[in-house]
Amino acid sequence: MDTLSTTLLAAIFLPLLGAALLWVVQPLGRDAVRYTALAVTMLTAVIAVSLCLSYVEAVKNASPGEVKVVASTDYPWLSPSISSVDVKFSVGLDGLGVWMFGLSAILMVTAVLVSWQAIKEREALFYGMLLLLEFGCLGVFTARDLLLFYIFFEFTLIPLFFLIGIWGSEDRRYAAIKFFLFTLAGSMLTFLGLLAIVVWDYQQQGHQQFRFGIESLEEAKAYLNHPLLGKRLLECVNAIRRHQGRSPEQIFSPIDAIKFRSCLTLFKLVAGPESVFAEALKEFYRGQDDEITIGLLAAMQPCSTSY
């Protein structure tokens, strides 16, 4: 594990340690709690900013088409010899999450400052919930395993529930319960969809492990040839092609427009230059493939993401 990886882990877990520290300093009074919370968030923000700058420097030194993941850590939760589920504690900074990671750390400093005089009771619990929320947010934007991302995302619901329910305005308890139930219901549906795709991959491809992403052209071909998944993919691409005259950024968000181009590139390589995917690339991206996707395939790296 290199220095940047250790630094990233420190940034993620520092708010968690800070939340525990607040219970220790709570008997010392309100000021001790507030200054401890401020010190933890400021130190986390400094570390996060330094990591973002390190990422920028790494990108500058990268070769064209190379995908940079900085400060990555991969640690399997379950040994392949005892489990068929391939889940890892995998974190790192890439182009999608690095800026949200830095922004989350900075915003927590402002959250502590704006509540400096407003919170007059249960200060240790309030700032503890803020730090737990920061821990979850930083984990969400650095997670590179889909299950780990899901765990971090669900974890953020816990401190948010208490922040809304205890320090909210009128009808705060009703709002907190409604927020929790609606968010949990939506995420459970997402989780069930994820498991359905993973189980299908396990059954169809005969792998020895449950996996959570398309990792090769062979798997992309199997996905496209599936009677249901392939059909739905073609329907989605054709539906988007009906919006010619609008840019992908107007149809999607800028991030989703990048993902769409990557998807088209991947499946064009499988389906051929006369496929609907190649036509969509011509219509929306002037026929230019996504270089990052090409680079990933050339380097035989996984083509899956946590976002």
Report a brief summary of the structure.
This protein is mainly alpha-helical and 307 residues long. The protein is built from twelve helices and two strands; from the N terminus they run ααββαααααααααα. A two-stranded antiparallel sheet has the order 1-2.
Describe what this molecule looks like in 3D.
- By secondary structure, this protein is mostly helical.
- The chain folds into two domains: 3-143, no CATH class; 215-298, Serine Threonine Protein Phosphatase 5, Tetratricopeptide repeat, CATH 1.25.40.
- It is built from twelve helices and two strands, in the order ααββαααααααααα.
- It has helices at residues 3-25, 30-60, 98-114, 123-140, 146-167, 172-205, 217-225, 229-241, 248-251, 254-271, 276-285, 291-298, and strands spanning 70-76, 88-93.
- Strands 1-2 form a two-stranded antiparallel sheet.
- α2 runs antiparallel to α3 (98-114) and α10 (254-271) packs antiparallel against α11.
- The model is unreliable at 300-307 (pLDDT under 50).
Order of helices and strands: HHEEHHHHHHHHHH
> How large a portion of the residues is in β-strands, by DSSP E?
under 5%
Poorly predicted ranges (pLDDT <50, ≥5 residues)?
A: 300-307
Average predicted confidence as pLDDT: 82
| Strand order within the widest beta sheet | 1-2
Structure classification: mainly alpha
Instruction: Write down the Rg.
Output: 22 Å
Tell me, briefly, the overall form: elongated
| Count of separate DSSP helical elements | 12
User: For the report, how would you describe the main beta sheet?
Assistant: 2 strands, antiparallel
